[in-house]
Each structure stands twice: as structure tokens, then as C-alpha cells.
Amino acid sequence: MAPALELLEKSIEPLPTKAFPGTQNGVSAGGSPSLESQEKHQRVMNVFRAFIADLCQQYGEGHAGSPMGMTAIGIALYKYVMKYSPKNCNYFNRDRFVLSNGHACLWQYLFMHLVGVQSMTVDQLKSYHSSRLDSICPGHPEIEIDGVEVTTGPLGQGVASAVGLAMASKNLAATYNRPGHEVVNNMTWCTVGDACLQEGVGLEALSLAGHWKLNNLCVIFDNNSVTCDGTADVANTEDINMKMRATGFNVVDVYNGDTDVAAVVNALDAARSSDMPTFLNIRTVIGIGSTQAGTADVHGAALGVDEVARLKRSFGLDPNEFFYIPQDVYDFFRDIPGRGEAHEAGWKATLAKYREEYPELAAEFALRVAGEMPNDWTKCIPRKEEHPTASTASRKSAGVVTNALAQNINTFLVGTADLTPSCNVAYKNKVDFQSPELQTVCGLSGDYSGRYIHYGIREHAMCAISNGLAAFNKGTFIPMTSTYFVFHLYAAAAVRMAALQNLQQIHIATHDSIGVGENGPTHQPIAVAALYRAMPNVLYIRPCDAEEVAGAYIAAIQATETPTIISLSRQGLPQYPQCSSREGTLKGGYVFTEAEGGDFDVTLIGVGSEMGFAMQTRELLLKEHGIRARAVSFPCTRLFEQQSREYKQSVLKPRAGKPTVAIEAYPSNGWERYADASVSMNFFGKSLPSKETYEYFGFAPESITAKVKDLVEEVRRDGIGILRGDFRDLNGSLQIHLEH
Amino acid sequence: MAPALELLEKSIEPLPTKAFPGTQNGVSAGGSPSLESQEKHQRVMNVFRAFIADLCQQYGEGHAGSPMGMTAIGIALYKYVMKYSPKNCNYFNRDRFVLSNGHACLWQYLFMHLVGVQSMTVDQLKSYHSSRLDSICPGHPEIEIDGVEVTTGPLGQGVASAVGLAMASKNLAATYNRPGHEVVNNMTWCTVGDACLQEGVGLEALSLAGHWKLNNLCVIFDNNSVTCDGTADVANTEDINMKMRATGFNVVDVYNGDTDVAAVVNALDAARSSDMPTFLNIRTVIGIGSTQAGTADVHGAALGVDEVARLKRSFGLDPNEFFYIPQDVYDFFRDIPGRGEAHEAGWKATLAKYREEYPELAAEFALRVAGEMPNDWTKCIPRKEEHPTASTASRKSAGVVTNALAQNINTFLVGTADLTPSCNVAYKNKVDFQSPELQTVCGLSGDYSGRYIHYGIREHAMCAISNGLAAFNKGTFIPMTSTYFVFHLYAAAAVRMAALQNLQQIHIATHDSIGVGENGPTHQPIAVAALYRAMPNVLYIRPCDAEEVAGAYIAAIQATETPTIISLSRQGLPQYPQCSSREGTLKGGYVFTEAEGGDFDVTLIGVGSEMGFAMQTRELLLKEHGIRARAVSFPCTRLFEQQSREYKQSVLKPRAGKPTVAIEAYPSNGWERYADASVSMNFFGKSLPSKETYEYFGFAPESITAKVKDLVEEVRRDGIGILRGDFRDLNGSLQIHLEH
């Protein structure tokens, strides 16, 4: 026996499998079909595992170990427990399944094939790790594939998405179900490996699932005691069961999870009737059946030709038969498409009765199922004449819009990472999303129909859970999150997953720029914008006043396949009713104001809370130096990039000898595309009051004016434009000292 | 009583304070001085809390609540338990203290003043939230301030740094202590609020502290049951004590932590003799003494003029006396500087004896204390002629250097987020950093002298803990981390803290670019480089071959105030012994090869694993189209920016009509500074084998040649250069669909 395997056996406490009420003679009580014999299960497992070995052997690589170890779990889920319809994978009330240990994707692909997902052919299975462009078997599951709920791979993200999927069901059920009419009652199943229980984002999300008592969530731990570095003990010796109990989960052990299908079925069935989320700690052996079973060697590698042959022989299979699925194994799964159709038909019947009894609710529900918003959402966006004219923080302007949207449209789930008093997303008459049980336990208000979500101080989980909310059924929810912009760096890996999956979300990012002030350099979000401006399929929008805020919301709502970050100021901002426009905002950048008289000497680009500096500098330049400046507002570089070349040139007006200067309290990175120089923050900030922070770093009309004047004069003197590679950081840069 | 306060009282189990052996008559056994009377403590607490209230009232803002609630904890720590020397805050063997709830900084500043840290005057205390540029009382504690160990504020970072500080002590102690000679034996104390126990990075780090049995770490939970959103219950109802026990902590409750100094002292003292890390769950009342005590209203706000007056009266203080510290309160802390000097003198005496007994070890230790590396580290960097000439993955070239450095120099602590088989940082004869107890418990090898660290699948904690390792005493350690580059997005908030604190680290980031292949878009790190290139004080270096890898390590070791990310390929890369140079790498960008014959038509910028495409395109352009191309290698934009204008122009050679094209499989963002066009990835990747992924996205010499040829012809045809705002994304961009 391999040393790691010995350790594994030692670490398993010899407790009996927990017995559940209603479980008799191997037939489970939770509505699952009768169990077939263990002999039959073993046959299916052998064929399954040999097929996985063949798939990885094809190109001599891939993840074989976990799919082999998890085979019994898969049979329990796909054959007995999950309610789904392989002929219509997107049937609304289906159970959701998330493979949070996404590298085990072959497991999912092969089960999808066996249960009859039509696109998942043997030919497709063989495309894993191939160079085929039409493959639907990528190295990690992707949301675009029929039967895959969310893209997984980056560890911890899947389980957080699963929490979001379970929340989505809870919220819909609480909102639309009526006594005797359960139009939403699906479960969420999520497999995890060691990693998802080590990654912070997973731990944050699990803590919330426990708090919210999401009893429609079952987390299935493929506890094979092995990670890439060897035995999982090498970096983790905590008592996971105790930890999960402390976190509010119902914890169930299964000790022979790689062979005992009945035990797994019982445990899964019991999860359906738990009053808490369930954590199944299922002991398995990675790469079971191979001689390297139970070791890290079978984690991310093929077994080798000889070993695959040996394994098949030991399974009673022909070593010369490859990709072998005999008819009896297909037959084993033959009932599933029909059962799926029955689930769907049952749901439709429920829906029909519901429609009769509750026509208005049913109409709204139908809209939600269709992923559509009420057409009149535009009424929630204030008209230009409704904006205040006095100085207003853009977080306040945004609060007005969030309030109107969230009050009136159930599509919006609005959350905060413990910054309700700061982010202005709490809306009138909000109801908190909470377990109603907590009303008696600790006096909290709220229930599952609530759409205001207290995520606690868990920015990463907030955004990762939002991915699940948005993925439940596209358009049914538009999750909104809120925190300080700098903390979107904690959440970056989750926002990236949203962008990759084309999930619509609105992230309210307040306290942007150095204007946040006293909280100091830790809270002044230098460089975070550079990330989101570069990240594909993200709209990072920095509006400069209430009108641009309106435009930012319109863009965010219209971008149905895209997460949007609306970046907002803590401090008051001047309003520019004569210059700002929502239409301009939707184009990403636009002429804010031309120079007096038409001709100009310099173009100033202003962004967000720094637009005021551009406008004041423009005045000073004229008054004190006779320099004619035009101003461009640039709330969103990505939207601007989508405009025509002609439009872009009409905004930027590139002319030799007439430089363009961007003014933004972020690093200059990115402005080189549009400007010759910038007044930027190529260093970290400082703890001072807002205005003084700006002044300290040269963001004051007087200092900017002096620098722009010098630049204009230099360019005039030297003739033509500024050379490539000679971009001017007018505020300078941090120098890195290399010791010699 | 405020409702939140009632809840708080209800939630406290009525257990007695745990009694510790050797604790009698209020005098603790752990080497602390005798306790003064509770009456005296109450007097000091009253004065302290009133002073905090005055400080926040000054500017009508700031965080008053936690400092007031934590006053008794502070007295216990600063007066009785911590071993430190206020006259020499950096004395090497001092106990380390981390305020992970950094917003409570006034608490730390005021205690620093009271115990005699000379720079922390009353005048300085009053500068909190002022516009004074010379303030050493910023909104969150900063490492530059005498007496502050690490910068905190972004929640969860501090506690992870504390784990690093405790590891550093353990490693030094195991390496240098000898029986009867304890040259390192300090404790690490860390206060946390609810947030640090919710944030994923904190949870990851705590899990490791438990695993490693860091009994020199004591985490002090200021359990005031309140967060910004109100009662902490609103987002967290887990059983934190059970969770911490499951994580491997010794858990101790203190129930009257805002008044009972003796109880806190006992608990803290006991932590010194625990065989596990200690978690003190100390119940406090936020803003105690004020009428809003126990509510979120006192978290981040001043109390108001009238309320401050009322509070002072209730404390028996004169409401008209401001910033009042009477002599008896100073007297209470008067013994501390002397005790600090005694600690230091004791350590020096220990060191003197040690030097006699172990002169060689003592010499090495002295070098570590001085923060210096052996001079001969350069021998660990392979010479140019030692590189392989065949295609080699840069992760392998880097492995050679890491191996030599880590084998020979104790300064390097090398870690991995469970990617030992992939990242090539495991060095010959490595010893794992582990608790020696785990050898018997689960057969793990390693002990605390080990310098190879299995962080598990916890990228964020890996980097955040590394901040503590680097901050223990600058230069004593250079932490190295390793994971796939895409997962540095998980760790971004921690790397940012390293950059902000000027902490030297080397992050080995393998599997960069889309060349990672089959793992697919989740693992192909689009946009991560844009973040790190924009982040101040980070060196992001992408070497193209073994020689540039050597240069990258030299830069990383020479950058003693800077974290460096060395970005490496999974796949084999061609070697360019005729072109590549470490000297060029240190300049960030350099001429790789000029065009044949001297004059040129186009400049191609190649980076890292895409340099091969630039070189192959260069050949094809000449052969097939007679276009003469020069090639520039550009491993590090930040190092290049530090060069003179003349040098930069000599590399880029900007000429009208001779375009520059950057070739990199990342978004084009940033290349606009140096190029007119780029072959980039302005979209997410795809799961295909490495070469096919490149080809799919147009990274193949033939397709690049065609695009560059078109561009050169267009520029020739139209005359001069490419206009501002007209940068050419030769591979196109992802379009975001806005619904109308």
C-alpha cells in the first residue's frame, strides 16, 4: 500500500455510516428510484473508471485521479438523487450542480454523456485536451456548455457560486411560492476538494451559507486526503467536520465513498430534508484501482499505457478495448431522460395551476423566468433636470438610482460588504435577506424574500456569490454589490469569473481615488482601475457628476452580458449640467466643453472626481496664461474603444503641437493611448483630509496649470509632437532603488 | 440599554473566567509585574477613553468605539505582558504586536505615547485626521512609524502578517537557538475585530497557524459584537470558539474584557506557555461609557460635544479639560521604559554568551540581524555560458536559480501554494517548515528550521504571511512564494500591502500567458500583468529566456525595498544567447537585435514567452516582404521607465513612418506608451494545447507577419505616424453589447 494511502486509512475514524430515518433495505426515502445492486454499481464504476483512464491516456495528460475517486458519488447524484432533465438542461426548476473542483471535469462530462445530454458524445469526450476548436470538453467546465451551471477551475469560486445559486432559489421560492404551489424548490449540489475548503473565498461563502441556513445547499467533500503537494496533511490538519459544524452545517460522514453508492445516496437524500445546509464528508481514494491510488501521482497525470491495461484487467475488462461503454452500462442510465421529462412536466403542471390561482404573480414570475426586466426601468433613472446643482458626492447620486431600481424591481439583489452607512445602497423599505429563524434566535429582521444582503466583511465571497446569483438563470437576477473600490482588489478573481462567464452584475465601488482622504494609502485605490480597464468584458465607469452617474447605470443595465463597476466618490463633486451628458457617458468619452472661441492649445481629459480639476485648470490657463484648453470627459475607456475611429478623433482632436493631458488620481497606465502627458498617481497615497491629499500630490488647479503651461510651451518651442516612449508623467514617478 | 447591547449580553454564555495554573491573588505567573488595583486600572481607563473621545471630537470624525472598548486589553498588553522597549522600538527580540483591526489605530498611538515612545507626543496624537504633513498618526497604522510592526487597515491582512511574524521567530529560533541560549524567543500578539475573522485571507492564515502549531502567536479577538452594519449577527452567527478549536487553536474566553484587566492579563500570560496558538475571545463593549455604547453608531464617528462632556463627567473627569493626562496616569506606565531596557540588556547578555560558545552561528545570526545577505549570492546566479541552448521553459530556468539560492542562503524562505510539482521551487535537500509534532501525528517530515513552506491552496495568505516574514526585520528574510500567475489575482491585495510597505519578496509566477494551454481561460492570466505593471513599487518581470531569468533574479535581489514578480512560462522557450542579456533585463527593455544592414522599417517589441514570435516574424518579414524589422526585448516596463530619456529613445527609435508593434499575449493596455500597435489578447483565452491556443488567437509568425506588413504599408501610404487615440489592436478587441 502506498504510504499516503496508509495515512489515509489511519485518518478515517471507524464510525458507522449515519443512518437516516426512512432508509430501509437499500431503498432511500427521499424520492429517489430504487437502488440497483452493489454488483451492478461496481460494474458501472469499473467501466467509468477505465473510460477516464483511457481519456487521459490519449494525450498522456489530464486529471484522472479525482474523477475515478468520485465515481460512486457521481452515480448517486446523476442516477438517483439529482432532479434534472438531460434533454433540456436549462429547465428552470432543475437542481443545480457545481463541480467546484473543476479539474475533475472529465467526471462531469462522462456522466453527462451517460445520462443522455445529447451534445456530449463519445466523440466529444475524446476531444478533451485535443486541439479541436469545437470541443465542449475544455480543461475546466465552462458555463457555455449545456449541463454546466457555472465555469469553475480557480479554486473556491465554484462553491461560492453554489451558495449564490442556493440563495437565488431561496429568494425566488420566498417571493413566488404560495401554499400548495411550489414553483421553485430546487436543490444545489456542489462537489469540493481540499482546495475549496482551504481557499478564503470558499470559507467566506460557506460561513454565509451556514448563517443563512441555506438548507437547499449540499456541499459534497471529495475527501481523498491528497493534493498536488502530496498528502493534504502537509498543509492542513484541522478538524474539518468540527469547523463545518461551527459554521452552521449539518455534517454527515460517509466512509466508503468510492464504492458504497447506497451510503452516498442515503446521505444525499437526507440533505434534502435538513434544516441546515449539509456538508457531506465523503472519504474516497484518488485514482482508485490504479497502483498509484491514494497518491498525488494520479492527481494531474495519465496513468501510463501499461497501468491502464493492468487496471482494466483488474476490473474484469478487456485491456485492448478502449473507450468502452457496454450496453448494460447505458441501460443503467436509460431511465434518466424520461424521469427528467417527468420532472419538467410536473413543474409545468404546477405552474399552470399557479397561473390560475395567482395570475399577477405568475406573470411577474414568467418575466423572471424569461430573464426580462419590466420595460419601465428607465423611469428609475432620474432625468437631467432632477439632479441637484450643488456639490454632491457621486456615491450619493448613485444612491438615488439604486434606491429607485431596488425599490421597484425584484430583479435587483442589493448587497454590501458591511458598508451600509457608507455605500448608500440601502433602499427605502428594504427587507434583509435572512433566515426567518434568526428572528427568534437573535432578533434579526428579514426573511428569504428580502433583497438586501449583508455579506459581512467578505468582499471576495460577495462577488463570487453574485456570480451564482447571476448564473441561476440569466436575467432573473441582477446582483448589485457594494464596498470601497480598493476592496474590489480582494474580489478581483471573482469579478474576473463574472466577466469570463458573461454575467451581468453592478458593483457599486465607492470611495474611489485619493479623495477618500484620512483613511490613508491603504484605502486609496491606486492601480485597481488599471486592472479593471484591462480586464476583458468589464465596464469600469467613473462618472464625474449626477448626470454621468445616470449614464453609468443605463450602461450597466444595458450591458446584459457584462459586469459593470460604477466607481464613485466619497467627497462632494461639482455638478456640470451644461457639459455632462448620459449619452456621452454611454460613448465612454466625449467633448465636455470646447475652448472659448473654437481654436485650442491643449486638450484636458478629466475623469470622475478629478473632472473638477480639469475644468478649473482650463479656466486658470486662459485667465493667467492665455492658453486655450478644451475639456474631454472620459468615464469609461472600454465604451470609448467601441466607438468609430471618426468619433474618437472628433473627441480627441489630435493635432501636432497641441498636447493632450489626462488628469486622474490613478497611475498614468492606459492614458498613453489618448494623451501625451498626465497628472497622475504613480505612487501610493497619504493619510490627509480629502482636499489636502489632492493638494499634496499636486492635484490643485494652480499646480496643474503650471505643469500644463510648461508642457504647452515646450511643445510649441520644439515644434511637433511628443515622441513615442516619451510620455510625460507630470507628477513624476516612484523610483525603485536597486542596490549595487 | 441599547437593543444591540442587550443582544450582546444575551449572547454571552455565563461561564466563569477560565483560571490558569499559577494565577493567585490577581498576580499573574507569566513573568508580568504585579498587578495594580482594579481601581487604579479604572482610573487609567477613564482617562484613556476620555482622551480618545477628545481626539475624535477634534475634527468630528475618526474611530472612537474600538479604542475605547479595547482599553483594558491595551493596559494588559502594554503595561503587563508585552516585552518591548519603547526607547528602542526595533530591538530585535521584542514581542511583535499587530493591530489587525487597523482602524482602531488611536488605541495604539495613545498607548505608545503613554509607555514612552518618544516620537509619539501629545502634539502628534492631535494630528490624527488633521492636515499636518508631518503626522505620524495616520488613519491606519503604517510600518514607517516607530513602534508599528506592519501597516494594517485592509482587513484580514494584519492577522496574516502576524502569522508571518510568528513563523519568522520560530524559524530563527529553530535555526540559531541552542540549549541554554535563546537568542530568539519573542511572542507575536495580534488584535482582531470581527472582520479579520470573516475575511478569507484571515481564515486561510489562521488555518495555517493552527497547522503549524505556532504557540508563539496569540490572537486577541475584540469581540464587541458590532460591525458597520449594526450587530455582527447580521452577517455572522457561527460558533467562533468551536471554529478556532477545529482550526488548532487553544481557545480562552474572557467575559469582562472592557474592565477586568486582571482577567485579560491572566489569559495573555497563559498564551505564553500554550503548546498551540492561542485565541482569546474577549468580550468588550464598543464605545463603552458613551450612551451609544454597544452600537454601530460609535464605530466610525465622534461622539458629539455634549456626549463627550457627559462621558467625562460620568468618569469623574472635568468636562472642560481636554486631552487630559494627569501625572498619576503617566506614573502608572513609568516603569516601562526601564523594563524595556532591561529586556534589551538581557538579550544582549544572552547574545554575548552565545557568541562565545557558538562563534560561527553567532556571526551568521549577526548578519541576519543586520538584514544582510552573504556577499557571494551572485555565485548562485548561473553565468551566461552555463545556460542550456535547447528550448527550455522559463519556469525550469528559474528553478535552477531558486535551487542555488535556497540551498545556500538561509535568508530565503521558499513557499508554494500546493504547486510543488509545477513551479519548480523545491530545492535539493529542502527541509519543510513544519511543527516537529506532526512527525508523530501524521508522519510528516520537517521542523521549524525548515525553509520550504507548504501553504496549501491559499494564495492570498501565502503572500500576506510573506509580508509578515519580510517585516520581521528587514532583510532577515526574503520570502519567495510560488503559484500560477493567474492566482496572483487572489493574492493581489497582499502583494499591494508588500509594495506599500517596501517589503522585499520574490513571487515566482509560473504558467503565465496563454501558453499554459489546456487548463483553459480560467487559468490563462489575461489582465493580471496590467495590474502589477500599474501597481507602484512592484517589479513585474517577464524574462524571455534563461539569461533574462538570471537578470530577473538579480533585479529582484537588488530591489531591497520592493516585491518582485518573476513571470514564467510553462512551455519550452527558445534561447537567444546572441541577443539576450542580464544587463539589458536590468534596464527593463533593450535592443535585442537591430535590422539587417542597419536601417529599418518597423520595430517589434517581444516580451517573455512571446519573444519567439517577434524573432520569427522578424525573419519572415524580411524573407517574404523585404521589410526590415528590429527587435526589442521588454521584460519589465517599470525598470525601463527608470532609464534616461536618451536611453529610452535609443531603444525605441521613434521615427515617423516606422511603426512599433508590441507582441504579447496580454491586453494591449500599457503598450500604447511604447508602440503604435500591438498583437494582443483583449479577450479571454481558450482551452487548447499551448501551441494551438497561440495559433487560435493569431500568435503565429505567419499571421503576425501579415498584420505587420499591412500596417507598415498603410503607414507608408498615408505618410506620417499613427494618430493619438488610433492605437491599433491588430488582433481586435472584445465588443461589449449594450442592449437598446
From TrEMBL, chains A, B:
Which SMART domains has this protein been placed in?
Transket_pyr
What are the alphabetically sorted keywords of the record?
Answer: Magnesium, Metal-binding, Thiamine pyrophosphate, Transferase
* UniProt GO BP: pentose-phosphate shunt
GO cellular component assignments:
cytosol; nucleus
Question: Which InterPro entries does the record match to this protein?
Answer: THDP-binding, Transketo_C/PFOR_II, Transketolase-like_C_2, Transketolase-like_Pyr-bd, Transketolase_BS, Transketolase_fam, Transketolase_N
Look at the named UniProt entry and state the broad enzyme category this protein falls under: transferase
Mention one GO molecular function. Answer: metal ion binding
Recorded superkingdom:
Eukaryota
**Coiled-coil blocks:** none
What EC number(s) does this enzyme carry? 2.2.1.1
Q: Per the record's keyword annotation, is Coiled coil included, yes or no?
A: no
Region described as Disordered:
16-36
Q: Give the Transketolase-like pyrimidine-binding domain ranges.
A: 392-575
Q: Name one Pfam family in it.
A: Transket_pyr
Protein name (database record)? transketolase
